[in-house]
Amino acid sequence: MSIRKLHKPPHVEKQHNSIPVRESQHISHVNQNNHLIIMKKVIIISTSLRPGSNSHALAEQFAKGAEAAGHQVELISLRGKEIKFCIGCLSCQKTGACVIKDDVPAIMDSVLNADVVCWATPIYYYEMSGQMKTLIDRMNAMYPKNYQFRDVYLLATATENEEETPKRAETGLTGWIDCYPKSRLTGTLFCGGVTMPRDIEGNGKLQEAYEMGKNA
Ligand SMILES: Cc1cc2nc3c(=O)[nH]c(=O)nc-3n(C[C@H](O)[C@H](O)[C@H](O)COP(=O)(O)O)c2cc1C
Fold it and tell me: I need a surface site. Which of 53, 54, 121, 130 has the fewest CB within 10 A?
């Protein structure tokens, strides 16, 4: 990939003279405070399938925060998406593509090209949702490919509100992250005490998700 220099606009004080960026990957602009903003691609994958989802509300706030920071944001909900189980044929390792034709390849392309990947999940049996795990398995074709993402975030909701409640989901996600060694789990935001749809309304964790997205 070619590298080009991005030159400082004349009215920007105390900024880098130029910042090398990967062409087609980053676009920059100057915000109201004359700060040079490097626009990242942020993808948020919201895995709850129910209307009024609490974890989706966190995902939306993360997206709003990232947008406010000037990033390019894509929020994908798995609701209505066709995501079949991995059949374990491993042909993806020879061909780089999955034999199953559904909504996964498009999501995988977005993940590969993102700088930041944020997963949102309800806690099911002290783990990530089955649909999130199914998607991770199906994205096995990306394992040998070049990937752009460095920062990975986890947003989770559950009925219980114990420190331990999201830990296995976090560990499970780390299993995926470990396969992409240039990336790391940058942050986890957990909101316990929410069971029914929209229970999260008015919860302070929504603002925390916004701030997390803004600082992503
Ligand atoms: C199949 C299933 C399993 C669940 N397992 C747990 C659990 O292990 N611990 C917990 O605290 N809540 C559990 N819950 C409650 C959900 O985590 C909770 O309702 C959460 O707010 C759902 O998030 P959502 O609105 O984004 O779907 C479970 C719910 C379902 C449907």
Answer: 130
